[in-house]
Specification:
By secondary structure, the chain is mostly helical. Helices cover about 60% and strands about 10% of the residues. It has a three-stranded antiparallel β-sheet with strand order 1-2-3, with helices on one face. A hairpin with a 5-residue loop joins strand 2 and strand 3. Helix 2 packs antiparallel against helix 7. The longest helix is centred in the first third of the chain and has 22 residues.
């Protein structure tokens, strides 16, 4: 299969060259572009998620031989979640190479977190199928870089920590309320308020509900922590 300039440019950004560039092309094809004879990346995404998980599990075990499962699990989740995959995808400008249908293209699909995260997982699977596990592992660890070494020693998310704080004091779990939504449909901005049964609140604004909730929980944890 002849390589397009787009594929060659992405290979350079990924730091590898495919023996079967058709695998990379499939990894970049969103379901909105699928057609008879043109597979989308959903099956590759499924496989890539598992390859990424094994690489990160190995790296975390090797990096901290004394950590318990309870410490490793949240670190693992922080490294493999869709947001982390999308961040890496943005760093290699994966969005520029995505093959999208007109509707997705018009709605800003090249910048959507979910599409980028899925495509990054699909690319990992394409590397695995093209060159094997070691090649996929090398690329993953290189692209994830310092994220692995710098993942927090206890990466429990702020929402979990806030819930534990509330339950330890006999309170109901915190609630999260969307107080405002702005921006275009393809790039919404959410303002979320975290609330405790005691009446204490904190707000945060971010480009995804999950991130806004986490930031609001962190802000509320900081506020109640000062009062302890």
């Amino acid at each position: 299969m002849k390589r397009s300039a787009e594929i060659e440019a992405l290979e350079a950004r990924l730091g590898l060259r495919f023996e079967r560039p058709d695998l990379l092309r499939r990894a970049l094809t969103h379901s909105s572009m699928s057609a008879p004879g043109r597979e989308d990346n959903q099956r590759l995404e499924f496989l890539g998620d598992r390859v990424l998980g094994l690489v990160m599990a190995e790296a975390l075990l090797a990096g901290d031989r004394k950590a318990s499962e309870g410490q490793l699990a949240p670190r693992y989740n922080a490294l493999v979640r869709k947001e982390a995959c999308a961040e890496v995808a943005r760093e290699v400008d994966l969005g520029a190479a995505l093959k999208l249908g007109r509707s997705e293209m018009m709605s800003g699909g090249r910048r959507k977190m979910a599409l980028l995260g899925d495509a990054m997982e699909a690319v990992i699977a394409a590397v695995y199928l093209d060159a094997g596990f070691d090649a996929a592992k090398e690329m993953i660890l290189r692209l994830w870089g310092d994220r692995v070494a710098q993942v927090e020693a206890d990466a429990r998310d702020a929402k979990t920590s806030l819930q534990e704080w509330a339950q330890a004091r006999g309170m109901a779990p915190p609630s999260y309320v969307e107080t405002e939504r702005s921006g275009p449909d393809h790039a919404p901005v959410f303002t979320i308020e975290a609330r405790l049964e005691s009446g204490q609140t904190a707000q945060a604004t971010a480009g995804s509900k999950r991130k806004a909730e986490q930031q609001a929980a962190a802000a509320l944890l900081n506020k109640v922590g000062k009062g302890d």
